[in-house]
Amino acid sequence: MNQHGIPGSYDGIFRNIQRESGGNPQAINLYDSNAAAGIPSKGLLQVIDPTFQAYHVDGTSWDIYDPVANIAAACNYASHRYGSIDNVFSAY
């Protein structure tokens, strides 16, 4: 993330992982509005496929369930939307 200028601390990432997936890299949310629209949130930081594809970080896997790729894409998205994953305290 640092190489790509994506801000985020361990504490901010950890806090959001615990809330979003409980630390399960295979987590998938089949019950929210995204799931109802056919694009469920997936992985450690519960990213939907279009967001993962739009904010994918070069050098990481294209597998949304890959922990590094999921974290990097989610933090990249959060940096564009909120300034940093550290500024996210609820579902994003």
SSE layout and pairing:
Blueprint: H1 10-20, E1 28-29, H2 33-36, E2 41-42, H3 49-55, H4 67-82
Helix pairs in contact: 3-4
Label the overall shape: globular
Q: Strand portion, in percent?
A: under 5%
Compute the average pLDDT: 96
Percentage of residues in helical conformation:
40-55%
How many helices? The count is 4
Compressed to H and E, one letter per element, the order equals: HEHEHH
Description:
It comes from Nocardia terrae. This is Transglycosylase SLT domain-containing protein. Pfam families: SLT. With 92 residues, the protein is mostly helical. It has one domain. Helix content is 41%, strand content 4%. The chain is built from 4 helices and 2 strands; from the N terminus they run αβαβαα. Strands 1-2 form a two-stranded antiparallel ribbon. Helix 3 packs across helix 4. The radius of gyration is 12 Å and the shape is globular. The model has no long low-confidence stretch (mean pLDDT 96).
Q: Keyphrases for this structure?
A:
single chain, 92 residues, mainly alpha, two-stranded antiparallel ribbon, globular, Transglycosylase SLT domain-containing protein, Transglycosylase_SLT_dom_1
Concise overview:
The chain is mainly α.
